[in-house]
Amino acid sequence: MLNFQYCNPVNVVFGKGQIAKLAELVPADARVMMTYGGGSIKRNGVYEQVMAALAGRKVIEFGGIEPNPKYETCMKAVDICKSEGVDFLLSVGGGSTLDGTKFIAAAAKYTATEDPWDICLKGTPVTDEIPIGCVITLPATGSEMNGWSVVSRLSTDEKLSFWSQLSFPKFSILDPEVTMSLPERQVANGIVDTFVHVCEQYVTRPVNTPIQDRQAEGVLLTLIEEGPKALSDPKNYDVRANLMWAATVGLNGWLAKGVVEDWGTHAIGHEITAFTGTDHGKTLALVMPALWKYLRREKEAKLLQYADRVWGIRGDDKDAVIDAAIEKTVEFFKSVGCDASRSAYGVTDEVIEKIVLVFERRGTKITECAIGAHEICEILKLCAK
What we know:
A six-stranded parallel β-sheet has the order 1-8-5-4-2-3, sandwiched between helices. The chain has a two-stranded antiparallel sheet with strand order 6-7. It is an alpha/beta fold. It folds into two domains: 11-178, Rossmann fold, CATH 3.40.50.1970; 184-382, Dehydroquinate synthase-like, alpha domain. It is globular and about 65 Å long. Helix 2 links the parallel strand 2 and strand 3 (58-62). 48% of the residues lie in helices and 11% in strands. It contains 15 helices and eight strands.
């Protein structure tokens, strides 16, 4: 097991009717900006619950944060935070809204360089932030219990991430009931996103981490069992609760400690989204099987373990076992609505060239194998057509 440090300060408030707890959790004297996305919270009753809990408070609303939050949109919120003296941010929505809110929180206090985008582009440290709380309505990113944020910039076709200990929410309210009205597409994307989060921390190379491995396998098996049920029985509270907690555990740091991590599928998937606008979850369903095929030798031990413990596939022919496990994974993605193919998502040869150029320009090496632009090109060509 590798050395690690772990500190997670998030107060998780889980279960039915917990949005009412905002009255206790948001500082009474705070000047609050409530951030949200396209307005679904005003159609599903969440907005009314939030405003009832914050009755009598000064609340500034900022809507319109995109499913892949844009730097340009976030900077409009930053300007309002500065002009209105906002001292608490409340993200109400999915992980993208929270990711955008984390960037707003950091950029509003940023003074290191002229452009806060350097937080993502250059990894300039975050030294101060507006405090954040959140109400999660779409389980997927795990952002409610970690310090990560992913933001896109339209002007440069970039989608980049940053991490800061200051970006952990002060609290995260998780009420599974509010996820029951989600469109099937968002449910599917969330299931795949969580599944791939877990695999990026698990299907790498062994370093004797039996606890983390079993935890990861438990989340994967739960997703396989519960994911299809969420689509066939969307009002099932227990299913929704299990998926919501799976998404949180999938990226709250527990599975990553002491292990070797990958994150190559996410790195490539982010660029596909940047160039084509394809849903994040769908890009992951497209890329991960191809990446596993390309790196099968490097990942052989963990792919065989994954095949055995998650899918019950064993045999003397290692390549056949790995191929079967990859096919089972693709079948699972299809079962929850992510039937991934390059042609369906607009990943043309021209787009592949653009993505490869991005990695060449940055000199980026990805995955635990430190692969570069040439290998990334080969992986993209292996993606289902």
